[in-house]
Amino acid sequence: MKQGSIQWEEVRMRLQTNENSLRESLSESPERIRTVFRQRAVQLAKEHAANKPASRGIPALIFRLAEERYAIALQELAEVLPFQGCTPVPGTSTQFLGVINLRGELRPVIDLARVLSGSSSTDSGAVLVLRRQGALKVDSVEDLREIRPEELTRPVQGHYIQALASGTLGLLDVETMLLAVFSPKESRSI
């Protein structure tokens, strides 16, 4: 095998050219700074235009009842608390679990699993305290998410679901559900 000779003068010239290029790229001349800033501004403008959201969505809390997932608009909620039981009220329907004392205010707790599916919820979970009078007992809280209007479709059936997001996530219609659960007299005070 024949070894080629090394052209040392060519190697020195390449190294000198690379060193000059590196020195030039690291120099902070006013013209160089303006050029770099212009390039960055153009790139950021392109990225910003590409990331622009299609439309404003509905901020929602995702929760679970047994195997089903639902969402409730954040504007309906005051707070979320762990379920630690509640005091039963004699003579109420099975949809009511009882009442909780929330900083001196009694709030009726609705068993949302019983309202939506007819089955009772678990003994653990969370309480979604509504901005209006009342609270909803759910099995678990999963996530916060923004639901875009283009994701929503009308449900085929379901009295208390105003729309489906992504085909399987039911967006709860709180107003309709509360009007149905409470008697007309009670629903006016909510």
Which key terms come to mind for this protein?
190 residues; alpha+beta; OB fold (Dihydrolipoamide Acetyltransferase, E2P); 2 domains; six-stranded mixed β-sheet
Describe this structure in words.
The chain has 190 residues and is an alpha+beta fold. It folds into two domains: 8-50, no CATH class; 58-188, CheA-289, Domain 4 (OB fold (Dihydrolipoamide Acetyltransferase, E2P), Beta Barrel), CATH 2.40.50. The chain is built from five helices and eleven strands. It has helices spanning 8-26, 30-50, 112-117, 174-181, 184-188, and strands spanning 58-65, 68-73, 77-82, 96-102, 105-111, 126-130, 135-138, 140-147, 152-153, 161-165, 169-172. The strands form two sheets. The chain has a six-stranded mixed beta sheet, with no helix packed on it. The protein has a five-stranded mixed beta sheet with strand order 3-6-7-5-4. It is elongated and about 100 Å long. The chain starts with 7 loop residues before the first helix and ends with a helix. 21% of the residues are buried. The model is unreliable at 186-190 (pLDDT under 50).
